[in-house]
Amino acid sequence: MNKQTIITILLAVIAVAGQGQVKCHVVGTVGDGVERQTFYVAQQGTADNDDAKWTEVNVKDGRFALDIVADTTEMYEMIEDYWQGGHFALFLVENDTVRIAITPEDDDARLEVIAGGPEQEKWLTMQRMSKALFGQEAEVIEHKLDSLYEDDHVYSEAYRRLMEERETYDRANPDHVHALETIYARMDSMKHDKSAYSPEARKLILADDSLHAQVDAWTKAYKADHPMLYGLLYLEARMLYAYDDINEVQPYLDEYHQLYERLFPEHPAHQRIALKERGLRLQPGQPYFDDYEAATADGETVSVGSLYRGRVAIINMWGSWCGPCRAHAKALIPIYEKYRDAGLTVVAIAREWNMDSFRRAMERDQYPWPSLVDYQDRYGVWEKHANKNGSGKILLIDRDGTILSTSNDAEELEPIIKKALNIE
To answer: What is the pTM of this model?
Structure first.
């Protein structure tokens, strides 16, 4: 009898037709020194924190295995902990075997796909070629930066002061949210113009940026000459993690339209990307959705459009779990009280996984408007707004359905609301 026992878990994704079309066998090894003996697998971008959508993979004698049955080739992820995050590996589910190696890295585990089906192998080949061309220079820069981090010589004095100021605020205190957002915006600005770094670190980071630009140009040219389904699905994953910032996502959209829009036409990724792009276009001056659905707190499905069409409306997307969302919503209460008799309405939609938490938040915050609910993403409201991986959102809609503002600042919204309501 073999001393090494492999626990095989069947992860079934039911196909629309009732039977799966793709069967993938995933095997892996876990090296000595890796403390974690449980990992999780799900289709990339579909599970979030939904326990039911993650499959637990237990390690036995340094090995694990699972079988995935899906209706089409999709990208899956294996992660250390889907609640806390951590290292992860992306792989394609194909009619083949995927091999994953998990090795110790500092205090964590490093997950690496080392072999897969034909489409996975195309991507791995590109990665190996890229490493051969640029890997040595990248390692030199990384080693020098690591030394600066160890010596605490990375950040400038001005940036250090901001970091210290940030720690004086309580993230759980709604009154501190605006101050924290201002600090984070300044920190992001300093990182962007490199003033956040010491002279030594700035030189290395500029060199790293230059190297990344070379790698990106080479990779894009390679992908143009070697069409890959992995490339399409990886691009979709990058869009997901870019949240709802159109400026951050635009390079990915440009690459999609240039390289992938006409490739693999039957793959559902195209529909998902189109939905993401439409949500990202929800900007001032653009039309809002004609209609979509959510539920009342009692679970009754309602037309959201019937609540805002023909009105000056604030669409308030929030959640009991989102401190900043609740702070922004509470700041809207005086504005709503001031202008509701003139025609202002608020349509609130909460993204929730726990209805008890939702009811407690409604009672504690004392909103003067009711709130709809998208419980466990049943209606996909956040995904429609390109915000599936983000937190809340506020949109001000005119009577004709035009988006007037996407600001979450009540002071910025008030003059726009007054103009829309024809108040002098």
So the answer is: 0.78
